[in-house]
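Lab intake sheet, docking and co-folding queue.

SAMPLE TYPE: protein with bound small molecule
LIGAND NAME: zinc ion
LIGAND FORMAT: SMILES
REQUESTED OUTPUT: full 3D complex as structure tokens
PRIORITY: normal
SUBMITTED BY: R.K., bench team

The fields below were copied directly from the construct record.
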Amino acid sequence: MTLRQTLAVVLQVMDHGDADKIVTCYSQELGKLSGIAKGAKRSKKRFVNKLELFSLLDLTYAESRTSSLMRLDQAELLHAFPSLRQDYGRYTAATLLCEQMLQWTREHDADPALFTLLRWGLTALEQGQPPFATVILFEIRMLDLLGYRPNLAGCLRCGNLTPTRRPYHFSTSNSGLICNPCNRETDHGQVPVSLETAKLLHAAQHMEGSKLDRLHFSPDAIRESLTLLRYYDRHLLQREISSWPHFLASLPITD
Ligand SMILES: [Zn+2]
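RESULT FIELD (auto-filled):
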């Protein structure tokens, strides 16, 4: 049996029987990867305190002959992101990032840029960057990498992005903005968006993660951005990401 090695972030851990754990990670080499850690609940050496949510591991694994699950051979803990467990806002933000990776990616479909984005998001949260801004930028970048970049450069119909008395709307089904004069639709997949929010999100599409703190979101822009991204997620995935309500409830800006 050939042993392989990869960097991986733990997205989900479940007990399996009396002794084992089933772990799902997002790995650099293989994308999403699920594996069984035999004896993980008892082993003092190979896995103890390593297979925890958010942990960055150097993982050694092998393909199984009898199961689609990998056999996890051993894990070296590179970083545990302990501070993400000590603050509810950061914890729910990090949980949301991990659930996004679980829902949006397929097993054995590697995308090193997504892996880098996940590491960036967890690191930014650990370093004290505001959770809401980190989640907004992570989402905007993730949608880019997945090929679902929303069109925020201007109205989908007339191209304008100029002040109007009434708000723009974001159409989840058309993946872009529609200004009020062009908006003749009555579908329910529309989210009101101010000009300020549209311009901030558009800027975020072009900004490097290291410059995150240059973006200043007002409370209204935060609320609008997160609402837009949540509904866009739900439209694209055709289901709700369960971490969204927990994350939004952790923010002082929600009603
Ligand atoms: Zn228009």
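REVIEWER NOTE: Residues 155, 157-158, 160, 179, 181-182 surround zinc ion (CB under 6 Å).
SIGN-OFF: pending second check by T.M.
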